[in-house]
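Translate sequence into structure tokens.
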Amino acid sequence: MPQIAKKKSKGIITWPEDERPRERLLRLGPQSLTDAELLAIHLRTGYRGTNAVELARQILRKFGSLRALTEAPVPGLLEIKGMKGAKVAQVSAAGEMARRIALPDQRERMRIKTTKEAADYFQTRLRGLPNEHFRGLYLNRKNMLLEDALLSVGSVDQTKPPIRLVITRALQANATALIIGHNHPSGIAEASESDRIFTEDLIAALHPLRVKLLDHVIVGTEKTFSFADSGLLDELNLSCLAPVRK
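Result follows.
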């Protein structure tokens, strides 16, 4: 009895040249491609029976959009059929490039003069990350950014860097001011009790060094929380620096 041949997906190489994503991009520009076709160029190949564009469509169906894909954790990408180490690395790298492109050019010359500018910066850097990332922006007396340091990465719930690490980076950068920020993977931009305690401890540790904590920003899905704007930073400063009564 003759076997029924399985239907095979035709590879992109068999498509007419004017339909291939790479050739169309070179001829008409990247704006001529769909989201799936742009992603397929990064993937380069699919897997047996599925070409790169079809794989890209499967990935976008799973995550919903290119933006959501840039926020996807590496383990989540590895779960997709046809996504091996090299492809996952390419997609993750492209997502991180998109994040960094959104940051201002020449960050070493950047000035952060307002709490809104700090919040906008941290939102671009931290929004949508699957784990909690804690960063410090180290500034000079003119509020010029000296260093943007990743201080810790933790679980979905929370992470706080050792205060000695935050201080060491301040001394290394010769900073006179600091803005700290972290994201809440839950998406809720509110200060927890542990956030408040950490901020209070950091203020007390920085005071003898004459390094001022200007703000602590918490990034949620759509909103941010500022210790400075809420008045909580002033409250903690008063609490930490008030003379002890005998």
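Note: The chain is about 45% helix and 15% strand.
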